[in-house]
Amino acid sequence: MRNDKGTASHEFDIAIIGGGSGGFAAARTASARGATVAVIEGGSEVGGLCILRGCMPTKALLESSHRLHEIHRAREFGIAVPKARPLPPAILRRKNRFIAEFADYRRTQLEEGKFSFVRGRARFIARNELAIDPVPGARSRAAGKAIPTPRHIRFRRCIIATGSEVTWPDVPGLRGAGCLTSDDAIALARVPRTLIVLGGGSVACELAQHFSRLGSRVTQIQRSPHLLSDMDADIADALAEQFRSEGIRLFTGTRLLRAEKLGRARRVTFEHGGKTRVASAEAILCALGRKPAIASLDLGAAGVRADRGAIAVDGSMRTSNPDIFAIGDCNGIIEVVHIAIQQGEIAGRNASDGGSATWNARLKAHVVFTEPQIAACGASEKELAAAGRPFLAASYPFADHGKSMIHGATRGFVKILCDPASGEILGAAIAGPHGGELIHEMIAAMHWRGTVAQLAAMPHYHPTLAEILTYPAEELAEKVARG
Fold it and tell me: What secondary structure letter does DSSP report for 229?
């Protein structure tokens, strides 16, 4: 391995553990600032969670089930269509083709970047040193050329970007019941006739609707009082109404008691509404969350502290060892890929020059690609209430919006939260058509510290979905003006 001066060395300014989206962003940022960088990737595949098993494969699958659902609604729009049916192997091939293309592109970026790309599993053996176990059959590269994989790497600073892994809650019999994980579910070439989905987060909701629309009879069991427990209940309720209207049996506010395999069937016993209930299905999808993938790093050897299973960091992404940073899912702050990229860029700058650039959650955003799409940015009502911050809220339903009616997409609403004195937008949420696209107007407004009066005054073309955002903005602007 060689540094920028061409001398043999296993020493780097910055070592980055993990070659996913966050790790790549950190490497690109740090190397552009003149640092010598090694990206260490220990997975059997290259690409990161988002590309290989997360964002991109699930969205490819969801697009197929969404198209089928729309075709089934064709008569509502005056179109007669012969009976449509899903072709699961073809859906899987389409998804696999896209993922292979995305992964190949990311692999090329890593192998030909202005940094060394080391294929091995890393663990700390000192505050500034890593031991590397090579990945069998994989070759490390530097400047586009194959190189031997080093057994040890010393660094001035390190960025941990190891992502997350599936977690198994302590439910008796759950692992022995032969549950599917989300990794398994996105590789199925056959749709289960019946399916139990455990969980109510983004992954659980997206896959529950996907398999339901492909013909599976789905029962979804959520432990929290409502779906998407991190969001406000009114947003989650709009999704729950849609799920029930599509035939998904939905139970919230439950306590899982046990899971078991009985012949070819799987069974889940749970408490709901003070009663013990039993759900049986051909398959169980365990989508009860993920945890930071940090167990194999031996963080203690580097003086890095973990808190409740995640690496503790400050706003600059520094850990308890000031020369080591942690970004993305492994720090447990917000498990969303664009935030991992933002944090990677911040850590890459700080690790390069010892700076103190910080990340904050003011513009955090999240999208759930169900129908209706669920999207939010900034603060929620319950976050503002918990912080004791005064706010005003206003909403407007898609059922009373002309363009939404034409689309045949009238379930849900938009909501805006603002400061009662200044009118500055503090947060927004959307449950409705193209919510994941519409939310970016609110992110842009918040980025520039916009007010509801400014949003209401901004011209919006008619008829468009986006103009619905002006209605709650107008209502709030009037309230702010009245004091």
Answer: T
